[in-house]
Protein backbone atom coordinates (compact mmCIF):
# COMPACT_ATOMS: atom_id res chain seq x y z
CA UNK A 1 0.00 0.00 0.00
CA UNK A 2 2.25 2.78 -1.28
CA UNK A 3 -0.75 5.02 -1.56
CA UNK A 4 -2.13 4.51 1.94
CA UNK A 5 -2.47 8.24 2.62
CA UNK A 6 -4.54 8.73 -0.54
CA UNK A 7 -6.57 5.59 0.16
CA UNK A 8 -7.39 6.90 3.66
CA UNK A 9 -8.40 10.30 2.32
CA UNK A 10 -10.64 8.66 -0.27
CA UNK A 11 -12.12 6.41 2.42
CA UNK A 12 -12.92 9.43 4.59
CA UNK A 13 -14.88 10.99 1.71
CA UNK A 14 -16.64 7.73 1.02
CA UNK A 15 -17.70 6.73 4.52
CA UNK A 16 -17.94 10.18 6.10
CA UNK A 17 -21.70 10.64 5.70
CA UNK A 18 -22.41 7.31 7.41
CA UNK A 19 -20.01 7.19 10.31
CA UNK A 20 -19.59 9.31 13.40
CA UNK A 21 -16.56 11.61 13.52
CA UNK A 22 -15.84 10.62 17.09
CA UNK A 23 -14.74 13.33 19.51
CA UNK A 24 -11.43 13.53 21.33
CA UNK A 25 -11.84 14.29 25.02
CA UNK A 26 -9.49 15.13 27.85
CA UNK A 27 -8.81 12.62 30.61
CA UNK A 28 -7.98 14.96 33.49
CA UNK A 29 -7.70 12.29 36.13
CA UNK A 30 -5.26 10.20 34.10
CA UNK A 31 -3.33 13.28 33.02
CA UNK A 32 -2.72 14.37 36.59
CA UNK A 33 -1.76 10.86 37.64
CA UNK A 34 0.60 10.17 34.76
CA UNK A 35 2.13 13.59 34.18
CA UNK A 36 1.32 13.74 30.49
CA UNK A 37 -1.67 15.20 28.66
CA UNK A 38 -3.91 12.21 28.03
CA UNK A 39 -6.56 12.47 25.32
CA UNK A 40 -9.13 9.83 24.44
CA UNK A 41 -10.36 9.17 20.89
CA UNK A 42 -13.87 7.83 21.45
CA UNK A 43 -14.41 5.02 18.98
CA UNK A 44 -16.29 3.36 21.83
CA UNK A 45 -19.27 5.52 20.83
CA UNK A 46 -18.87 4.76 17.11
CA UNK A 47 -21.78 3.11 15.28
CA UNK A 48 -22.03 -0.62 16.04
CA UNK A 49 -19.90 0.01 19.15
CA UNK A 50 -16.45 -0.06 17.56
CA UNK A 51 -14.16 1.33 14.85
CA UNK A 52 -14.80 -1.74 12.66
CA UNK A 53 -17.64 -0.03 10.78
CA UNK A 54 -15.10 2.29 9.14
CA UNK A 55 -13.18 -0.45 7.36
CA UNK A 56 -16.19 -2.63 6.63
CA UNK A 57 -18.13 0.24 5.11
CA UNK A 58 -15.18 1.41 3.03
CA UNK A 59 -14.94 -2.10 1.61
CA UNK A 60 -18.64 -2.73 0.98
CA UNK A 61 -19.23 0.69 -0.58
CA UNK A 62 -16.70 -0.23 -3.29
CA UNK A 63 -18.35 -3.49 -4.32
CA UNK A 64 -20.24 -3.45 -7.60
CA UNK A 65 -23.95 -4.23 -7.70
CA UNK A 66 -23.06 -7.63 -9.21
CA UNK A 67 -20.62 -8.32 -6.37
CA UNK A 68 -23.19 -7.34 -3.78
CA UNK A 69 -25.79 -9.51 -5.48
CA UNK A 70 -23.38 -12.46 -5.35
CA UNK A 71 -23.20 -12.06 -1.59
CA UNK A 72 -20.85 -10.82 1.11
CA UNK A 73 -19.29 -13.42 3.39
CA UNK A 74 -17.32 -12.94 6.55
CA UNK A 75 -16.31 -14.66 9.76
CA UNK A 76 -16.50 -13.02 13.15
CA UNK A 77 -17.80 -13.58 16.59
CA UNK A 78 -18.00 -9.92 17.43
CA UNK A 79 -17.40 -6.39 16.21
CA UNK A 80 -16.45 -7.14 12.62
CA UNK A 81 -19.58 -9.19 11.93
CA UNK A 82 -21.80 -6.41 13.25
CA UNK A 83 -19.83 -3.87 11.22
CA UNK A 84 -20.14 -5.78 7.93
CA UNK A 85 -23.87 -6.30 8.55
CA UNK A 86 -24.33 -2.59 9.21
CA UNK A 87 -22.24 -1.73 6.15
CA UNK A 88 -24.49 -3.89 3.96
CA UNK A 89 -27.54 -2.29 5.55
CA UNK A 90 -26.17 1.08 4.41
CA UNK A 91 -24.67 0.11 1.04
CA UNK A 92 -26.98 -2.74 0.09
CA UNK A 93 -26.07 -6.40 -0.14
CA UNK A 94 -26.68 -9.65 1.69
CA UNK A 95 -24.25 -10.78 4.38
CA UNK A 96 -23.49 -14.31 5.62
CA UNK A 97 -21.46 -14.48 8.79
CA UNK A 98 -19.73 -17.63 10.06
CA UNK A 99 -19.26 -17.79 13.81
CA UNK A 100 -17.69 -20.56 15.89
CA UNK A 101 -19.67 -22.76 18.28
CA UNK A 102 -20.06 -21.05 21.63
CA UNK A 103 -20.30 -17.54 20.18
CA UNK A 104 -22.23 -15.12 22.39
CA UNK A 105 -26.01 -15.31 21.76
CA UNK A 106 -26.22 -11.55 22.38
CA UNK A 107 -23.67 -10.87 19.65
CA UNK A 108 -25.42 -13.25 17.25
CA UNK A 109 -28.75 -11.53 17.91
CA UNK A 110 -27.11 -8.18 17.28
CA UNK A 111 -25.70 -9.28 13.91
CA UNK A 112 -29.10 -10.67 12.94
CA UNK A 113 -30.85 -7.46 13.96
CA UNK A 114 -28.51 -5.63 11.58
CA UNK A 115 -29.60 -7.93 8.77
CA UNK A 116 -26.79 -10.50 8.73
CA UNK A 117 -27.45 -14.22 8.36
CA UNK A 118 -25.47 -16.07 11.00
CA UNK A 119 -24.12 -19.62 10.53
CA UNK A 120 -22.57 -21.45 13.45
CA UNK A 121 -19.62 -23.50 12.18
CA UNK A 122 -16.55 -25.07 13.74
CA UNK A 123 -15.04 -25.24 17.16
CA UNK A 124 -12.88 -22.11 16.90
CA UNK A 125 -12.65 -18.88 14.93
CA UNK A 126 -9.94 -20.26 12.66
CA UNK A 127 -12.32 -22.96 11.44
CA UNK A 128 -15.27 -20.62 10.92
CA UNK A 129 -12.97 -18.28 9.00
CA UNK A 130 -11.82 -21.04 6.66
CA UNK A 131 -15.43 -22.05 6.09
CA UNK A 132 -16.39 -18.47 5.25
CA UNK A 133 -13.54 -18.29 2.73
CA UNK A 134 -14.54 -21.64 1.24
CA UNK A 135 -18.18 -20.56 0.87
CA UNK A 136 -17.18 -17.26 -0.71
CA UNK A 137 -15.02 -19.08 -3.25
CA UNK A 138 -17.70 -21.66 -4.00
CA UNK A 139 -20.55 -19.16 -4.39
CA UNK A 140 -18.62 -16.37 -6.06
CA UNK A 141 -19.29 -14.11 -3.08
CA UNK A 142 -16.87 -11.57 -1.64
CA UNK A 143 -15.03 -12.51 1.54
CA UNK A 144 -14.42 -9.48 3.78
CA UNK A 145 -11.40 -9.95 6.03
CA UNK A 146 -11.42 -8.15 9.36
CA UNK A 147 -7.94 -6.75 8.70
CA UNK A 148 -6.14 -8.33 5.74
CA UNK A 149 -7.56 -6.05 3.07
CA UNK A 150 -6.27 -2.68 1.82
CA UNK A 151 -9.74 -1.09 1.82
CA UNK A 152 -10.48 -2.25 5.35
CA UNK A 153 -7.14 -0.81 6.48
CA UNK A 154 -7.84 2.46 4.67
CA UNK A 155 -11.19 2.71 6.44
CA UNK A 156 -9.62 2.24 9.88
CA UNK A 157 -7.03 4.84 8.87
CA UNK A 158 -9.71 7.53 8.79
CA UNK A 159 -9.28 7.65 12.57
CA UNK A 160 -5.72 8.83 11.93
CA UNK A 161 -6.97 11.45 9.51
CA UNK A 162 -9.48 12.74 12.06
CA UNK A 163 -6.81 12.80 14.76
CA UNK A 164 -4.42 14.78 12.57
CA UNK A 165 -7.10 17.48 12.38
CA UNK A 166 -8.40 17.19 15.94
CA UNK A 167 -5.02 17.05 17.70
CA UNK A 168 -2.49 18.44 15.22
CA UNK A 169 0.15 18.81 17.93
CA UNK A 170 -0.06 15.29 19.39
CA UNK A 171 3.25 13.74 20.41
CA UNK A 172 2.19 10.11 20.53
CA UNK A 173 -0.72 7.79 19.82
CA UNK A 174 -1.34 4.38 21.35
CA UNK A 175 -3.24 1.77 19.36
CA UNK A 176 -4.22 -1.79 20.25
CA UNK A 177 -2.80 -4.34 17.80
CA UNK A 178 -4.50 -7.61 16.94
CA UNK A 179 -4.54 -8.49 13.24
CA UNK A 180 -3.13 -5.02 12.78
CA UNK A 181 -5.77 -3.38 10.59
CA UNK A 182 -6.41 -0.51 13.00
CA UNK A 183 -2.72 0.05 13.74
CA UNK A 184 -1.74 -0.15 10.05
CA UNK A 185 -4.36 2.39 9.08
CA UNK A 186 -3.77 4.92 11.86
CA UNK A 187 0.02 4.64 12.13
CA UNK A 188 0.45 4.43 8.37
CA UNK A 189 -1.56 7.58 7.83
CA UNK A 190 0.01 9.55 10.68
CA UNK A 191 3.56 8.62 9.69
CA UNK A 192 2.78 9.80 6.16
CA UNK A 193 1.62 13.21 7.32
CA UNK A 194 3.90 13.72 10.34
CA UNK A 195 6.71 11.23 10.97
CA UNK A 196 7.52 12.91 14.31
CA UNK A 197 4.41 11.47 15.97
CA UNK A 198 5.42 8.45 18.03
CA UNK A 199 3.21 5.50 17.14
CA UNK A 200 2.87 2.92 19.88
CA UNK A 201 1.32 -0.50 19.25
CA UNK A 202 0.07 -2.35 22.30
CA UNK A 203 -1.11 -5.91 22.76
CA UNK A 204 -1.95 -8.27 25.59
CA UNK A 205 1.06 -10.42 26.48
CA UNK A 206 -1.33 -13.39 26.42
CA UNK A 207 -1.87 -13.02 22.65
CA UNK A 208 0.61 -10.78 20.87
CA UNK A 209 1.06 -12.37 17.45
CA UNK A 210 1.90 -9.17 15.56
CA UNK A 211 4.48 -8.02 18.09
CA UNK A 212 6.10 -11.48 18.12
CA UNK A 213 6.14 -11.48 14.33
CA UNK A 214 7.73 -8.04 14.08
CA UNK A 215 10.35 -9.11 16.60
CA UNK A 216 11.02 -12.30 14.64
CA UNK A 217 11.21 -10.45 11.34
CA UNK A 218 8.53 -12.68 9.83
CA UNK A 219 5.00 -13.83 10.58
CA UNK A 220 5.19 -16.48 13.28
CA UNK A 221 2.72 -18.61 15.14
CA UNK A 222 2.66 -18.25 18.90
CA UNK A 223 0.61 -19.72 21.71
CA UNK A 224 -2.49 -17.74 22.74
CA UNK A 225 -3.88 -17.51 26.24
CA UNK A 226 -7.20 -16.08 27.28
CA UNK A 227 -7.25 -12.27 27.42
CA UNK A 228 -9.73 -9.58 28.38
CA UNK A 229 -8.72 -7.99 25.08
CA UNK A 230 -10.72 -10.47 23.01
CA UNK A 231 -10.92 -7.98 20.15
CA UNK A 232 -7.18 -8.30 19.47
CA UNK A 233 -6.73 -11.99 20.28
CA UNK A 234 -5.67 -14.66 17.83
CA UNK A 235 -3.15 -15.36 15.10
CA UNK A 236 -2.55 -13.48 11.85
CA UNK A 237 -2.77 -14.70 8.27
CA UNK A 238 0.44 -15.94 6.63
CA UNK A 239 0.04 -13.34 3.92
CA UNK A 240 -1.13 -10.49 6.17
CA UNK A 241 -0.50 -7.15 4.47
CA UNK A 242 -0.71 -5.60 7.91
CA UNK A 243 2.64 -7.19 8.83
CA UNK A 244 4.89 -4.88 6.79
CA UNK A 245 2.64 -1.91 7.59
CA UNK A 246 2.87 -2.45 11.35
CA UNK A 247 6.58 -3.29 11.15
CA UNK A 248 7.37 -0.12 9.24
CA UNK A 249 4.98 2.32 10.93
CA UNK A 250 4.96 1.43 14.62
CA UNK A 251 7.82 3.00 16.56
CA UNK A 252 7.24 1.23 19.84
CA UNK A 253 5.72 -2.13 20.75
CA UNK A 254 4.35 -2.79 24.22
CA UNK A 255 3.03 -6.00 25.75
CA UNK A 256 0.76 -5.64 28.79
CA UNK A 257 -0.38 -8.27 31.22
CA UNK A 258 -3.96 -9.09 32.17
CA UNK A 259 -3.79 -7.45 35.59
CA UNK A 260 -2.74 -4.18 33.98
CA UNK A 261 -5.54 -4.39 31.39
CA UNK A 262 -8.13 -5.02 34.09
CA UNK A 263 -6.83 -2.14 36.17
CA UNK A 264 -6.95 0.13 33.12
CA UNK A 265 -10.55 -0.89 32.43
CA UNK A 266 -11.51 0.05 36.00
CA UNK A 267 -9.69 3.37 35.79
CA UNK A 268 -11.43 4.37 32.58
CA UNK A 269 -14.74 3.37 34.08
CA UNK A 270 -14.32 4.97 37.51
CA UNK A 271 -12.37 8.09 36.74
CA UNK A 272 -13.27 8.97 33.17
CA UNK A 273 -16.79 7.48 33.06
CA UNK A 274 -15.92 5.51 29.94
CA UNK A 275 -17.30 2.09 29.12
CA UNK A 276 -14.80 0.31 26.89
CA UNK A 277 -13.92 -3.19 25.77
CA UNK A 278 -10.71 -4.91 26.79
CA UNK A 279 -8.78 -3.94 23.65
CA UNK A 280 -9.34 -0.26 24.45
CA UNK A 281 -8.10 -0.72 28.01
CA UNK A 282 -4.89 -2.18 26.56
CA UNK A 283 -3.91 1.32 25.40
CA UNK A 284 -4.08 2.76 28.91
CA UNK A 285 -2.20 -0.21 30.33
CA UNK A 286 0.54 0.49 27.76
CA UNK A 287 0.59 4.18 28.61
CA UNK A 288 1.15 3.33 32.28
CA UNK A 289 4.36 1.54 31.23
CA UNK A 290 5.55 4.26 28.88
CA UNK A 291 4.44 7.30 30.90
CA UNK A 292 7.78 7.96 32.66
CA UNK A 293 9.45 8.83 29.34
CA UNK A 294 6.38 10.66 27.99
CA UNK A 295 6.20 13.29 30.78
CA UNK A 296 4.65 16.52 29.55
CA UNK A 297 3.75 14.99 26.18
CA UNK A 298 0.35 14.98 24.50
CA UNK A 299 -0.70 11.35 24.12
CA UNK A 300 -3.84 10.03 22.39
CA UNK A 301 -5.32 6.69 23.42
CA UNK A 302 -7.56 5.18 20.76
CA UNK A 303 -10.51 3.67 22.66
CA UNK A 304 -11.40 1.28 19.88
CA UNK A 305 -14.73 -0.07 21.11
CA UNK A 306 -17.27 -0.70 23.84
CA UNK A 307 -18.47 -4.20 23.10
CA UNK A 308 -18.07 -5.91 26.43
CA UNK A 309 -20.50 -8.20 28.17
CA UNK A 310 -22.27 -6.89 31.29
CA UNK A 311 -21.21 -10.06 33.10
CA UNK A 312 -17.57 -9.31 32.40
CA UNK A 313 -18.02 -5.72 33.55
CA UNK A 314 -19.64 -6.95 36.73
CA UNK A 315 -16.75 -9.27 37.48
CA UNK A 316 -14.22 -6.48 36.84
CA UNK A 317 -15.81 -3.88 39.12
CA UNK B 1 -36.31 35.28 31.02
CA UNK B 2 -38.04 36.82 28.02
CA UNK B 3 -34.76 36.72 26.18
CA UNK B 4 -33.89 33.08 26.80
CA UNK B 5 -33.17 32.37 23.15
CA UNK B 6 -30.69 35.24 22.97
CA UNK B 7 -29.15 34.27 26.32
CA UNK B 8 -28.61 30.73 25.07
CA UNK B 9 -27.04 31.93 21.85
CA UNK B 10 -24.71 34.21 23.80
CA UNK B 11 -23.87 31.35 26.17
CA UNK B 12 -22.96 29.11 23.23
CA UNK B 13 -20.49 31.72 21.99
CA UNK B 14 -19.07 32.20 25.46
CA UNK B 15 -18.59 28.59 26.52
CA UNK B 16 -18.11 27.01 23.08
CA UNK B 17 -14.30 26.92 23.12
CA UNK B 18 -14.24 25.15 26.47
CA UNK B 19 -16.96 22.56 26.24
CA UNK B 20 -17.48 19.55 24.03
CA UNK B 21 -20.20 19.82 21.38
CA UNK B 22 -21.47 16.37 22.20
CA UNK B 23 -22.52 14.11 19.33
CA UNK B 24 -25.97 12.71 18.70
CA UNK B 25 -25.92 8.99 17.93
CA UNK B 26 -28.48 6.49 16.75
CA UNK B 27 -29.80 3.83 19.11
CA UNK B 28 -30.67 1.07 16.63
CA UNK B 29 -31.61 -1.53 19.20
CA UNK B 30 -34.03 0.81 21.01
CA UNK B 31 -35.40 2.10 17.72
CA UNK B 32 -36.30 -1.36 16.51
CA UNK B 33 -37.81 -2.28 19.87
CA UNK B 34 -39.87 0.88 20.30
CA UNK B 35 -40.88 1.64 16.72
CA UNK B 36 -39.62 5.21 16.74
CA UNK B 37 -36.26 6.63 15.69
CA UNK B 38 -34.37 6.99 18.95
CA UNK B 39 -31.39 9.34 19.07
CA UNK B 40 -29.09 9.89 22.03
CA UNK B 41 -27.51 13.26 22.91
CA UNK B 42 -24.31 12.26 24.65
CA UNK B 43 -23.82 14.65 27.55
CA UNK B 44 -22.53 11.58 29.37
CA UNK B 45 -19.19 12.21 27.62
CA UNK B 46 -19.23 15.95 28.40
CA UNK B 47 -16.34 17.41 30.43
CA UNK B 48 -16.66 16.61 34.14
CA UNK B 49 -19.04 13.80 33.18
CA UNK B 50 -22.26 15.78 32.89
CA UNK B 51 -24.02 18.76 31.26
CA UNK B 52 -23.49 20.85 34.42
CA UNK B 53 -20.25 22.37 33.10
CA UNK B 54 -22.28 24.31 30.53
CA UNK B 55 -24.28 26.32 33.03
CA UNK B 56 -21.49 26.66 35.59
CA UNK B 57 -19.05 27.94 32.99
CA UNK B 58 -21.55 30.37 31.50
CA UNK B 59 -22.05 31.80 34.98
CA UNK B 60 -18.42 31.97 36.09
CA UNK B 61 -17.20 33.46 32.79
CA UNK B 62 -19.48 36.45 33.43
CA UNK B 63 -18.15 37.26 36.88
CA UNK B 64 -15.89 40.29 37.15
CA UNK B 65 -12.32 39.94 38.38
CA UNK B 66 -13.45 41.53 41.66
CA UNK B 67 -16.27 39.02 42.01
CA UNK B 68 -13.95 36.12 41.29
CA UNK B 69 -11.44 37.47 43.81
CA UNK B 70 -14.19 37.64 46.44
CA UNK B 71 -14.79 33.93 45.96
CA UNK B 72 -17.26 31.55 44.38
CA UNK B 73 -19.41 29.49 46.72
CA UNK B 74 -21.67 26.59 45.96
CA UNK B 75 -23.28 23.53 47.48
CA UNK B 76 -23.30 20.14 45.82
CA UNK B 77 -22.50 16.57 46.48
CA UNK B 78 -21.95 15.72 42.87
CA UNK B 79 -21.95 16.99 39.32
CA UNK B 80 -22.55 20.68 40.00
CA UNK B 81 -19.63 20.97 42.42
CA UNK B 82 -17.26 19.40 39.92
CA UNK B 83 -18.63 21.65 37.19
CA UNK B 84 -18.16 24.87 39.17
CA UNK B 85 -14.63 23.79 40.15
CA UNK B 86 -13.79 23.10 36.52
CA UNK B 87 -15.38 26.39 35.46
CA UNK B 88 -13.16 28.28 37.90
CA UNK B 89 -10.14 26.34 36.66
CA UNK B 90 -10.94 27.65 33.18
CA UNK B 91 -12.13 31.17 34.02
CA UNK B 92 -10.10 31.83 37.16
CA UNK B 93 -11.45 32.16 40.68
CA UNK B 94 -11.45 30.24 43.93
CA UNK B 95 -14.32 27.88 44.72
CA UNK B 96 -15.66 26.75 48.10
CA UNK B 97 -18.08 23.84 47.96
CA UNK B 98 -20.32 22.80 50.85
CA UNK B 99 -21.26 19.14 50.92
CA UNK B 100 -23.39 17.26 53.42
CA UNK B 101 -22.03 14.65 55.79
CA UNK B 102 -21.84 11.28 54.10
CA UNK B 103 -21.00 12.69 50.66
CA UNK B 104 -19.07 10.26 48.47
CA UNK B 105 -15.29 10.42 49.13
CA UNK B 106 -14.67 9.76 45.42
CA UNK B 107 -16.77 12.79 44.48
CA UNK B 108 -15.06 14.97 47.10
CA UNK B 109 -11.64 13.90 45.79
CA UNK B 110 -12.76 14.73 42.27
CA UNK B 111 -13.87 18.26 43.24
CA UNK B 112 -10.57 18.80 45.06
CA UNK B 113 -8.57 17.58 42.07
CA UNK B 114 -10.36 20.22 40.00
CA UNK B 115 -9.24 22.88 42.47
CA UNK B 116 -12.32 23.25 44.67
CA UNK B 117 -12.10 23.54 48.46
CA UNK B 118 -14.60 21.17 50.00
CA UNK B 119 -16.31 21.79 53.36
CA UNK B 120 -18.43 19.08 54.94
CA UNK B 121 -21.42 20.71 56.63
CA UNK B 122 -24.84 19.55 57.79
CA UNK B 123 -26.76 16.33 57.70
CA UNK B 124 -28.46 16.85 54.33
CA UNK B 125 -28.04 18.83 51.13
CA UNK B 126 -30.62 21.43 52.21
CA UNK B 127 -28.45 22.35 55.20
CA UNK B 128 -25.19 22.51 53.26
CA UNK B 129 -26.92 24.67 50.67
CA UNK B 130 -28.14 27.15 53.31
CA UNK B 131 -24.62 27.27 54.77
CA UNK B 132 -23.12 27.98 51.35
CA UNK B 133 -25.60 30.83 50.85
CA UNK B 134 -24.85 32.20 54.34
CA UNK B 135 -21.09 32.11 53.72
CA UNK B 136 -21.46 33.80 50.34
CA UNK B 137 -23.51 36.59 51.92
CA UNK B 138 -21.10 37.01 54.83
CA UNK B 139 -17.94 37.05 52.72
CA UNK B 140 -19.27 38.94 49.71
CA UNK B 141 -18.71 35.90 47.52
CA UNK B 142 -20.94 34.76 44.68
CA UNK B 143 -23.27 31.84 45.33
CA UNK B 144 -23.76 29.71 42.20
CA UNK B 145 -27.07 27.86 42.26
CA UNK B 146 -27.22 24.54 40.42
CA UNK B 147 -30.38 25.64 38.61
CA UNK B 148 -32.01 28.79 39.99
CA UNK B 149 -29.98 31.26 37.95
CA UNK B 150 -30.68 32.66 34.47
CA UNK B 151 -27.07 32.24 33.33
CA UNK B 152 -26.92 28.66 34.50
CA UNK B 153 -30.16 27.94 32.65
CA UNK B 154 -28.85 29.66 29.51
CA UNK B 155 -25.72 27.48 29.66
CA UNK B 156 -27.75 24.28 29.86
CA UNK B 157 -29.87 25.61 26.99
CA UNK B 158 -26.88 25.34 24.66
CA UNK B 159 -27.75 21.64 24.42
CA UNK B 160 -31.04 22.71 22.80
CA UNK B 161 -29.17 24.97 20.40
CA UNK B 162 -26.84 22.13 19.39
CA UNK B 163 -29.81 19.79 18.95
CA UNK B 164 -31.64 22.27 16.74
CA UNK B 165 -28.63 22.13 14.38
CA UNK B 166 -27.83 18.43 14.77
CA UNK B 167 -31.39 17.10 14.47
CA UNK B 168 -33.40 19.89 12.81
CA UNK B 169 -36.30 17.52 12.07
CA UNK B 170 -36.70 16.03 15.55
CA UNK B 171 -40.27 15.43 16.66
CA UNK B 172 -39.72 15.18 20.41
CA UNK B 173 -37.07 15.52 23.08
CA UNK B 174 -37.07 13.90 26.51
CA UNK B 175 -35.27 15.65 29.38
CA UNK B 176 -34.86 14.64 33.01
CA UNK B 177 -36.28 17.24 35.41
CA UNK B 178 -34.91 17.88 38.89
CA UNK B 179 -34.49 21.56 39.81
CA UNK B 180 -35.41 22.18 36.20
CA UNK B 181 -32.34 24.02 34.94
CA UNK B 182 -31.65 21.57 32.14
CA UNK B 183 -35.30 21.28 31.11
CA UNK B 184 -35.84 25.06 31.26
CA UNK B 185 -32.82 25.71 29.07
CA UNK B 186 -33.42 23.03 26.45
CA UNK B 187 -37.22 23.22 26.25
CA UNK B 188 -37.21 27.02 26.47
CA UNK B 189 -34.77 27.30 23.59
CA UNK B 190 -36.42 24.67 21.39
CA UNK B 191 -39.91 26.11 21.90
CA UNK B 192 -38.57 29.52 20.88
CA UNK B 193 -37.14 28.20 17.62
CA UNK B 194 -39.68 25.50 16.77
CA UNK B 195 -42.85 25.22 18.89
CA UNK B 196 -43.83 22.01 17.07
CA UNK B 197 -41.16 19.97 18.84
CA UNK B 198 -42.79 18.06 21.68
CA UNK B 199 -40.88 18.65 24.90
CA UNK B 200 -41.20 15.89 27.46
CA UNK B 201 -40.04 16.32 31.04
CA UNK B 202 -39.39 13.14 32.99
CA UNK B 203 -38.73 12.54 36.67
CA UNK B 204 -38.56 9.62 39.07
CA UNK B 205 -41.90 9.10 40.82
CA UNK B 206 -39.90 8.86 44.05
CA UNK B 207 -38.87 12.53 43.83
CA UNK B 208 -40.82 14.61 41.33
CA UNK B 209 -41.04 18.07 42.90
CA UNK B 210 -41.23 20.03 39.65
CA UNK B 211 -43.93 17.85 38.14
CA UNK B 212 -45.97 18.01 41.37
CA UNK B 213 -45.55 21.79 41.43
CA UNK B 214 -46.65 22.23 37.83
CA UNK B 215 -49.68 20.04 38.50
CA UNK B 216 -50.50 22.08 41.63
CA UNK B 217 -50.04 25.37 39.81
CA UNK B 218 -47.51 26.53 42.39
CA UNK B 219 -44.26 25.36 43.97
CA UNK B 220 -45.13 22.70 46.52
CA UNK B 221 -43.18 20.54 48.93
CA UNK B 222 -43.53 16.80 48.50
CA UNK B 223 -42.05 13.74 50.18
CA UNK B 224 -38.87 12.36 48.59
CA UNK B 225 -37.89 8.71 48.49
CA UNK B 226 -34.58 7.27 47.45
CA UNK B 227 -34.07 7.12 43.68
CA UNK B 228 -31.40 5.87 41.30
CA UNK B 229 -31.80 9.27 39.64
CA UNK B 230 -29.88 11.09 42.40
CA UNK B 231 -29.02 13.89 40.00
CA UNK B 232 -32.65 15.03 39.85
CA UNK B 233 -33.66 14.28 43.45
CA UNK B 234 -34.73 16.86 46.00
CA UNK B 235 -36.99 19.87 46.43
CA UNK B 236 -36.93 23.16 44.54
CA UNK B 237 -36.44 26.70 45.83
CA UNK B 238 -39.56 28.72 46.71
CA UNK B 239 -38.50 31.35 44.20
CA UNK B 240 -37.27 28.98 41.50
CA UNK B 241 -37.26 30.76 38.14
CA UNK B 242 -37.29 27.31 36.56
CA UNK B 243 -40.89 26.81 37.71
CA UNK B 244 -42.56 29.10 35.16
CA UNK B 245 -40.07 28.05 32.49
CA UNK B 246 -40.82 24.35 32.93
CA UNK B 247 -44.55 25.00 33.31
CA UNK B 248 -44.71 27.00 30.09
CA UNK B 249 -42.26 25.02 27.94
CA UNK B 250 -42.80 21.37 28.77
CA UNK B 251 -45.65 19.81 26.82
CA UNK B 252 -45.72 16.46 28.59
CA UNK B 253 -44.75 15.37 32.10
CA UNK B 254 -43.91 11.76 32.87
CA UNK B 255 -43.19 10.06 36.19
CA UNK B 256 -41.30 6.77 36.07
CA UNK B 257 -40.79 4.20 38.77
CA UNK B 258 -37.49 2.82 40.02
CA UNK B 259 -37.87 -0.55 38.31
CA UNK B 260 -38.30 1.19 34.97
CA UNK B 261 -35.25 3.41 35.57
CA UNK B 262 -33.10 0.41 36.48
CA UNK B 263 -34.27 -1.50 33.41
CA UNK B 264 -33.51 1.53 31.23
CA UNK B 265 -30.01 1.77 32.70
CA UNK B 266 -29.38 -1.88 31.83
CA UNK B 267 -30.72 -1.45 28.30
CA UNK B 268 -28.50 1.52 27.58
CA UNK B 269 -25.55 -0.38 28.96
CA UNK B 270 -26.18 -3.72 27.27
CA UNK B 271 -27.61 -2.71 23.94
CA UNK B 272 -26.19 0.72 23.24
CA UNK B 273 -22.89 0.40 25.15
CA UNK B 274 -23.62 3.59 27.06
CA UNK B 275 -22.57 4.22 30.63
CA UNK B 276 -24.99 6.74 32.13
CA UNK B 277 -26.16 7.96 35.51
CA UNK B 278 -29.67 7.35 36.81
CA UNK B 279 -31.05 10.70 35.65
CA UNK B 280 -30.13 9.84 32.07
CA UNK B 281 -31.85 6.46 32.29
CA UNK B 282 -35.02 8.31 33.37
CA UNK B 283 -35.40 9.58 29.80
CA UNK B 284 -35.48 6.08 28.33
CA UNK B 285 -37.89 4.89 31.02
CA UNK B 286 -40.17 7.78 30.03
CA UNK B 287 -39.86 6.95 26.34
CA UNK B 288 -40.97 3.38 27.05
CA UNK B 289 -44.22 4.81 28.45
CA UNK B 290 -44.78 7.30 25.65
CA UNK B 291 -43.55 5.17 22.74
CA UNK B 292 -46.96 3.82 21.63
CA UNK B 293 -48.11 7.31 20.62
CA UNK B 294 -44.67 8.28 19.20
CA UNK B 295 -44.52 5.50 16.57
CA UNK B 296 -42.43 6.54 13.58
CA UNK B 297 -41.33 9.77 15.28
CA UNK B 298 -37.77 11.01 15.73
CA UNK B 299 -37.15 11.26 19.46
CA UNK B 300 -34.02 12.58 21.19
CA UNK B 301 -33.11 11.37 24.67
CA UNK B 302 -30.76 13.72 26.51
CA UNK B 303 -28.28 11.47 28.33
CA UNK B 304 -27.36 14.11 30.88
CA UNK B 305 -24.38 12.49 32.60
CA UNK B 306 -22.30 9.44 33.48
CA UNK B 307 -21.47 10.03 37.13
CA UNK B 308 -22.49 6.77 38.72
CA UNK B 309 -20.59 4.74 41.26
CA UNK B 310 -19.07 1.45 40.11
CA UNK B 311 -20.73 -0.24 43.10
CA UNK B 312 -24.14 0.91 41.92
CA UNK B 313 -23.38 -0.27 38.39
CA UNK B 314 -22.32 -3.64 39.75
CA UNK B 315 -25.56 -4.02 41.68
CA UNK B 316 -27.62 -3.07 38.62
CA UNK B 317 -26.01 -5.52 36.19
UniProtKB/TrEMBL annotation, chains A, B:
Domain of life, per lineage: Bacteria
Keyword flag Lyase: yes
InterPro entries assigned: Ser/Thr_Dehydratase, Ser/Thr_deHydtase_PyrdxlP-BS, TrpB-like_PALP, TrpB-like_PALP_sf
NCBIfam families the UniProt entry points to: PRK06815.1
Taxonomic placement: Bacteria, Pseudomonadati, Pseudomonadota, Alphaproteobacteria, Rhodospirillales
GO MF annotation: an example: threonine deaminase activity
Protein name: Threonine/serine dehydratase
Domain Tryptophan synthase beta chain-like PALP, first and last residues per copy: 18-305
GO annotation terms (biological process): isoleucine biosynthetic process; L-serine catabolic process; L-threonine catabolic process
Organism: Hwanghaeella grinnelliae
Keywords: Lyase, Pyridoxal phosphate
Family designation: Belongs to the serine/threonine dehydratase family.
Cofactor: pyridoxal 5'-phosphate
Amino acid sequence: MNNLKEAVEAAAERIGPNILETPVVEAPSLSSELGCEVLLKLENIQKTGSFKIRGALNKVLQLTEAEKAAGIVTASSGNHGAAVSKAAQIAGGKVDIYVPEGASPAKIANMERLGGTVHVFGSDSGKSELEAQRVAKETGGTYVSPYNDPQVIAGQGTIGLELSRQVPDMDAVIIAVGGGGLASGIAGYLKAVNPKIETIGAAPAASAAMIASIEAGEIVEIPHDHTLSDGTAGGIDDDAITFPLCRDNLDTLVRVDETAIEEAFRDLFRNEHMLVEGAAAVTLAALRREAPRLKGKKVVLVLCGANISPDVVKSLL
